[in-house]
Amino acid sequence: MLLDDDQASALGNMEVGKAVVKLQGRIPDPFMIQVPKMNILKGLVTDEMIKLTARLKTLKRPVTICD
Predict the structure, then answer these.
(1) Which of 5, 14, 45, 49 could bridge to 18 as Cys pair (CB 3.0-4.6 Å)?
(2) Rounded Cα distance, 57 and 67, in Å
(3) Around Cβ 26, how many Cβ atoms within 10 Å?
(4) Alpha carbons within 13 A on the beta-carbon side of 25
C-alpha cells in the first residue's frame, strides 16, 4: 500500500472501526476513515460468504449461483 515504516507499524495499533484507504490515481496519499459499527447477529455472515463475495467481485463476467 506504499506506506512508510511508521505508517505500516501503525496499522496494527488501529482501533476497531478504523480503516486505511488508498484510492489509486485519485488521492496521492493513503488516509484513515471511521467505519460505523453494524450490529448483526453473530453467525449471520460467515467467513465463507465473505470469501465468495470477494471472489465474485473479481470475476469479469456475471455468475449465477445455484443453491
Answers:
(1) 14
(2) 19
(3) 6
(4) 0
DSSP H or E segment with residue 18:
strand 18-21
Distance of CA 14 to the CA centre of its chain: 14
Instruction: Give Cα separations from 66 to 1, 18, 63 (angstroms).
Output: 36, 35, 10
Burial of 50: CB neighbours in 10 Å, binned 0-12, 13-18, 19+ = exposed
Which candidate, 65, 18, 50, 64, places its Cα nearest to that of 10? 18
How do residues 21-49 score in pLDDT, each as one tens digit?
888 887 888 888 999 988 889 889 899 99
